[in-house]
Design brief:
The chain is an alpha+beta fold and about 475 residues long. It has three domains: about 10-120, 2-Layer Sandwich (Uridine Diphospho-n-acetylenolpyruvylglucosamine Reductase, domain 2), CATH 3.30.43; about 135-235 and about 465-485, Uridine Diphospho-n-acetylenolpyruvylglucosamine Reductase, domain 3; about 240-450, FAD-linked oxidases, C-terminal domain (Vanillyl-alcohol Oxidase, Chain A, domain 3, 3-Layer(aba) Sandwich), CATH 3.40.462. The chain is about 30% helix and about 25% strand. It has 15 helices and 21 strands. The chain has helices at about 55-60, 80-95, 140-150, 165-170, 180-185, 210-215, 250-265, 300-305, 325, 330-340, 355-370, 370-375, 420-435, 450-460, 465-475, and strands at about 10, 20-25, 30-35, 50, 75, 95-100, 115-120, 135, 155, 190-195, 200-205, 225-235, 235, 240-250, 270-275, 280-290, 315-320, 350-355, 380-385, 405-410, 440. The strands form six sheets. It has a five-stranded mixed beta sheet, sandwiched between helices. The chain has a four-stranded antiparallel beta sheet with strand order 8-12-10-11. Strands 15-16-14-17 form a four-stranded antiparallel beta sheet. The radius of gyration is 23 Å and the shape is globular. The two termini are about 30 Å apart. Mean pLDDT is about 95; it is low at about 1-10 and about 15-35. Bound molecules: flavin-adenine dinucleotide. The site of flavin-adenine dinucleotide has 36 residues, from strand 6, helix 4 and strand 12.
Length: about 475
């Protein structure tokens, strides 16, 4: 269970719009003078409701720096009860609500104009590690969670490349990483969710209890409920890993070898990058593969692990790393980007899931047209295969192919360069349509202009399921308008 601090009410920053004159015990609300805003009768809270400009401006931005929608208030919940109380409050008044984890969406997905943003960072409780499981508040970052479980020699099985994302934020999209071919996405490792529905009800759901809600929330883009906590399956953590970078000079061999590795599962982790050569052409392919050592696997043996692969043997690098240093290897890079001011660039990201049998053609077309300017000074291009049989979460939409490929063109450009942002968004749309026409999907963490018809197409056969779950669990349709689905 998540902690419940002593009950106390705070309304901060309201002075600009209103004066709090006291608590009305009969109406159980703060009496406010001089406000015509939507939050003039908030219920008693354990946490804080912020209406000051700085808090609202911060919630009107995200890692993309492309979309800006200003909420009327930001809730820092002091308890799950606060989330319940404010969802009920907003529901009565037809105010939209969006939970926000670490704000690393790129296209306004956690923003809500004139509504309430719930900053989940205060839902940061981590429960005991017991029976190979742990329960974490939605606002816990994966870095903190990993450090806590590693004290017990255990680890969540799947990580995103960057660990400073919230548990609730990645479970609402899926959470894909180099271990996905072995364990599915992060949503596939959840055994129970604790949620507050759009109707303002606290519910525990799992495969056994409230299955429909469980399936509607995992990778459900926040459309039916707010995740307040999650119970996750853990696996034995290795102490050290061997991390290989294997260069290739042609896309076909690179993709084939990647596929071979996810099929024979000799590595715990498989990803890959495409880099520009000296002429600016994206045709340097680097397969990234990691073997886990004891107690999660045998001592890594180069001969066994690399046998049959067709990389350029002269350019191989192999590095033995402490497990946490491996999963957090982007951490130091991010610090450098922050120091260089590049972390604050715009991120008009393109994230696609390609059918395996079309991956070479579709990725080849995108890469052939790509220039360093389309990726920007801090951008990266990733491509790696997944195993469809491990991906069991219905709303995490995948191409119908046993080995789909994730292609991520993680673009960066100066936030004031609107012309380039518009050009890259248009290019994202074109790439999406090409992929879609061959059975591809978007992985919805990026910046692809999408309308309601696109969403219906995206969910396909599961659209009636999502629509009916939305109707049932968020009957007034107040949750997460920034996704643009309903
Ligand atoms: C540097 C970087 C690297 C990344 N690498 C990967 C990767 O390797 N693999 C991968 O899969 N993704 C990756 N992502 C994408 C990331 O997983 C998603 O953008 C994720 O949603 C961000 O989490 P957040 O806590 O910042 O969520 P936010 O941006 O705050 O929210 C994202 C969406 O989820 C909703 N949401 C947030 N919290 C909750 C909640 N508690 N309940 C219900 N809905 C909620 C929001 O309303 C919003 O719609 C990366 C992102 C960045 C910036």
């Amino acid at each position: 269970m998540l902690p419940k601090p002593t009950r106390r009410t705070a309304l901060k920053g309201a002075a600009a719009a209103a004066v709090v004159v006291g608590f009305d015990p009969v109406g159980r609300a703060w009496a406010v003078r001089g406000s015509s805003g939507p939050f003039d009768e908030v219920p008693p809270l354990d946490g804080t409701l912020l209406t000051d400009d700085a808090s609202r401006d911060a919630a009107a931005d995200d890692y993309g720096h492309i979309v800006h929608r200003r909420p009327a208030a930001v809730l820092r919940p002091g308890s799950v009860d606060d989330v319940v109380a404010m969802v009920r409050y907003c529901r009565k008044r037809d105010i939209s609500v969006a939970p926000r984890g670490q704000g690393h969406a790129t296209f306004g997905q956690a923003q809500v104009k004139g509504g309430l943003v719930i900053d989940t960072a205060t839902l940061d409780h981590i429960g005991a590690v017991k029976n190979g499981r742990v329960t974490a508040g939605a606002g816990v970052r994966w870095s903190t969670l990993a450090q806590a479980t590693l004290e017990h020699g255990l680890t969540p099985p799947v990580f995103t490349d960057y660990l400073e994302l919230s548990v609730g934020g990645t479970l609402s999209v899926g959470g894909i990483g180099g271990q996905t071919h072995q364990y599915g996405a992060q949503v596939d490792t959840v055994t129970e969710l604790q949620v507050v529905t759009g109707a303002g009800e606290f519910v525990r759901c799992s495969r056994q209890r409230h299955r429909e809600l469980f399936d509607a929330v995992r990778a459900g883009l926040g459309q039916c409920a707010i995740v307040v906590g999650a119970t996750l399956r853990l696996v034995t953590a290795p102490e050290r890993v061997r991390h290989y970078l294997l260069p290739y000079d042609d896309l076909h061999t690179f993709l084939e070898d990647q596929r071979r590795l996810v099929e024979d599962r000799r590595f715990a982790y498989v990803e890959g990058q495409v880099q520009a050569d000296d002429t600016g052409a994206f045709r340097v392919y680097v397969l990234e593969a990691t073997a886990y050592g004891p107690p999660a696997g045998p001592e890594p043996d180069d001969e066994v692990l690399l046998s049959g692969l067709r990389h350029d043997p002269s350019g191989v690098t192999a590095e033995d790393l402490d497990y946490y240093a491996f999963i957090d290897r982007l951490g130091p890079v991010v610090e450098q980007l922050k120091e260089a001011g590049l972390w604050d660039y715009s991120h008009p990201w393109l994230n696609l899931l390609l059918p395996g049998d079309e991956a070479e053609r579709l990725a080849g077309n995108i890469l052939a047209g790509l220039t360093p300017a389309d990726v920007g000074p801090a951008g990266v291009v990733l491509i790696y295969p997944l195993q469809r049989e491990e991906l069991c979460t219905p709303l995490l939409r995948m191409p119908h192919d046993p080995v789909p490929y994730l292609l991520a063109v993680l673009r960066t450009c100066p936030p004031e360069d609107q012309e380039t942002i518009d050009r890259l968004l248009a290019a994202n749309r074109v790439a999406y349509e090409d992929a879609r026409d061959c059975g591809g999907k978007q992985y919805p963490v990026g910046s692809i202009p999408f309308d309601r018809a696109d969403w219906r197409d995206h969910f396909g056969a599961l659209w009636p399921f999502l629509r009916s779950a939305r109707h049932r669990y968020d009957p007034d349709g107040i949750l997460v308008p920034g996704q643009g689905i309903f």
